[in-house]
Design brief:
Elements: H1 2-13, H2 28-36, E1 65-69, E2 87-93, E3 101-107, E4 117-121, H3 130-137, E5 140-142, E6 148-150, E7 160-164, H4 185-202, E8 211-216, H5 219-235, E9 244-250, H6 256-269, H7 275-284, H8 286-299, H9 301-321, H10 330-333, H11 341-346, E10 350-356, H12 364-373, H13 379-384, E11 388-392, E12 395-403, E13 406-417, H14 418-421, H15 423-427, E14 432-438, H16 439-442, E15 445-447, H17 448-455, H18 466-471
Parallel strand pairs: 4-7, 4-8, 8-9, 9-10, 10-13, 13-14
Antiparallel strand pairs: 1-2, 2-3, 3-7, 5-6, 11-12, 12-13
C-alpha cells in the first residue's frame, strides 16, 4: 500500500488539473434560439452585477418555472399532427441557488397521456441532453439538410418524455454565480428533485403516472443519486409524491473500482491490445488505480481528483493503441454510486442496467461485474439466473439476465449510445448486440422495444409484435 500511495502522489504531482469552472451564459446562437422560442426571461433578474453584493438564495415563493408550448413549422406529419401534440420547453429557476436556471424539453406521448413519465439524463459530465433528443431517442431526428423529421423510434411513442440539461453549466442551463456550480451528486440530485417538484406542480395531470429515470454514460452517477433522492423525498412526505417505479442506466459509470479494472480485460477480449500490453497494464497501472479509488472513498476531495488522474492513465494507454467537460465534477468521478441502490431494490423499485457490446469507455463487462457484485437480498439468485435472448421482431438483439426488480441487458450491434445504435430495441427495452456507448443511437429499434417492455413490466417476454406497435403510431 505504501508503494501505491507513493506512486499515486508522484502521478498526481506530475498532472496539471484545472478546476476553473465556466459560468458563462449561452453563446449568441443559443441565446437567439431561446429568444425566438420566447423562452428567455424578459428580465434577467438572475444576472449578478459585479459592482453590487451577491444576491441571497432565490425565494421559495418565486415563480420558478417559465415554460412555452411550441411547434416546428413545416414539420412533415405522420398520423398525429404536431398541433395535437404537447411539446414544451422552458427554464426552471433552481430553488436553492443564487442565479441558476435549468433548461428542459417535455414531449407528451404520441400514444396516451396515461403512459409513464420518463426523464432522460445525458452524461458527460457536461453533455447536453439535446444530444439524445436529436440523435438518439427524441421525437425528431436531424436530416442531412438540417431539417427535422419524425423519429420512427422516438421514446415519446410509449412515454411522456423529459430531457433536462444538467448539472448547471450544461447545454442551455446556466448561472452567473460560480457558487451554483455543483461538485457532487448531493448537489446534482437536490437540483433535479427541486426541478421535478416544480414540473409536477406545473403539470398536475401527470402526477399519478408511473415515473422512470433513464440516461447513459456519466448518468450512471446521476441516476442512482437522483432515484435515491426521489425515494427519500417520498418517504419523508416532502412536497408532491413522485410515483417512482424504476430507473435505467445505459452504458454507465457507477462503480469505478470494479469498472476500471475491467478495461484491460475488455480491451484484450476485443483485440484492442496485445497480451504483453495487457500484462503491463495489470502490473503497473490497475493496482495503483484500485488503491487510489479506495482513498477517494475515505480521504475526500484531493484523493478523488488524484484517482481520476491515475485511473484514466489505464484508459488513455488503451486508446494510444487503439470539447471540455465540467471540471467541477472531477471530485465526483471516482465515487461509488452503487451504495444507495440496494435500498431501492429491496423496496421493489425496478433497476435496468443495459450496455452496448461495442463500447469501451463504459463497457458491458465492467457494468455486468458491478451489478453482480452488488449486495442485496436477491444477489445470489440474480447471479445464478440464466441469460435469455432479448428478441425484437424475431431477431436476437441482446442477452438479458433478470431476477426480481433487477435486470441487466447486453445489447448487440450497439456502442455507447444504445438508443441511437438500436432505436427500436431501446424503445422496446434495453444489453443490446452490435451496440456501443450510445445504444439508442446504435440500435434505436431495439432500444424503443426495450423501453416499452421494461416500463410495462414485460422485459423478459419472448416475442413482441413491435413492428405493428411502431406502425400504428
Amino acid at each position: 500500500m505504501k508503494n501505491h500511495l507513493i506512486s499515486l502522489l508522484i502521478l498526481f504531482s506530475l498532472s496539471t488539473i484545472s478546476t476553473a469552472i465556466s459560468s458563462e451564459l449561452p453563446q449568441s446562437q443559443a441565446q437567439k434560439l431561446i429568444r425566438d422560442l420566447n423562452l428567455f426571461p424578459s428580465e434577467l433578474i438572475n444576472i449578478v452585477d459585479a459592482n453590487h453584493s451577491a444576491p441571497p438564495l432565490l425565494s421559495h415563493n418565486a415563480n420558478r418555472l417559465v415554460e412555452k408550448r411550441f411547434k416546428f413549422p413545416g414539420l412533415a406529419t405522420a398520423g398525429v399532427s404536431v398541433e395535437e401534440l404537447g411539446h414544451h420547453a422552458g427554464y426552471y429557476q433552481i430553488q436553492h441557488s443564487y442565479a441558476a436556471k435549468m433548461f428542459y424539453f417535455f414531449f407528451e406521448s404520441r400514444n396516451s397521456s396515461n403512459d409513464p413519465v420518463v426523464i432522460w439524463l445525458t452524461g458527460g459530465p457536461g453533455c447536453s441532453s439535446e444530444l439524445a433528443l436529436f440523435y438518439e431517442n427524441g421525437p425528431f431526428t436531424i436530416a442531412n439538410n438540417l431539417s427535422l423529421v419524425w423519429n420512427e423510434y422516438g421514446w415519446d411513442k410509449v412515454s411522456n418524455l423529459l430531457y433536462v440539461d444538467q448539472p448547471v453549466g450544461t447545454g442551455f442551463s446556466y448561472t452567473s454565480d460560480k457558487r451554483d456550480i455543483r461538485h457532487d451528486e448531493n448537489g446534482v440530485s437536490n437540483d433535479l428533485y427541486d426541478f421535478l417538484q416544480a414540473f409536477f406542480a406545473e403539470h398536475p395531470e401527470f402526477v399519478k403516472n408511473d415515473f422512470f429515470i433513464t440516461g447513459e454514460s456519466y448518468a450512471g452517477h446521476y441516476i442512482p443519486a437522483f432515484a435515491a433522492r426521489v425515494y427519500q423525498g417520498n418517504k419523508a412526505k416532502e412536497g408532491i409524491h413522485v410515483n417512482l417505479k424504476g430507473f435505467a442506466i445505459g452504458n454507465g459509470l457507477t462503480d469505478p473500482e470494479i469498472q476500471y479494472k475491467a478495461y484491460p480485460d475488455y480491451a484484450l477480449d476485443m483485440g484492442l491490445i496485445t497480451t504483453a500490453e495487457y500484462k503491463r497494464l495489470n502490473l503497473a497501472l490497475v493496482p495503483v488505480c484500485e488503491a487510489s479509488i479506495k482513498l477517494c472513498g475515505t480521504d475526500g476531495t484531493v484523493a478523488c481528483v488524484a484517482s481520476y488522474v491515475v485511473c484514466n492513465l489505464v484508459f488513455s494507454t488503451i486508446l494510444s493503441h487503439a470539447g471540455n467537460g465540467i471540471n467541477a465534477m472531477l471530485v465526483d468521478w471516482m465515487r461509488n454510486l452503487e451504495v444507495g441502490i440496494p435500498a431501492l431494490l429491496e423496496d421493489g423499485i425496478q433497476m435496468l442496467v443495459y450496455a452496448g457490446e461495442y463500447d469501451l469507455i463504459c463497457n458491458w463487462l465492467g457494468n455486468s461485474r458491478w451489478v453482480q457484485a452488488m449486495e442485496w437480498s436477491g444477489q445470489k439468485e440474480f447471479v445464478a439466473s440464466s441469460e435469455v435472448p432479448f428478441e425484437v421482431d424475431g431477431s436476437k438483439a441482446g442477452l438479458l439476465r433478470s431476477h426480481g426488480p433487477l435486470s441487466f441487458l447486453k445489447g448487440h450491434d450497439a456502442g455507447h449510445m444504445v438508443p441511437m445504435d438500436q432505436p427500436k430495441a431501446a424503445l422496446e427495452m434495453l444489453r443490446v448486440h452490435d451496440a456501443g456507448h450510445m445504444v439508442p443511437m446504435d440500435q434505436p429499434k431495439a432500444a424503443l422495444e426495450m423501453l416499452r417492455r421494461w416500463t410495462r413490466g414485460s422485459l423478459s417476454e419472448e416475442t413482441s409484435d413491435s413492428g405493428n406497435l411502431v406502425a400504428s403510431m
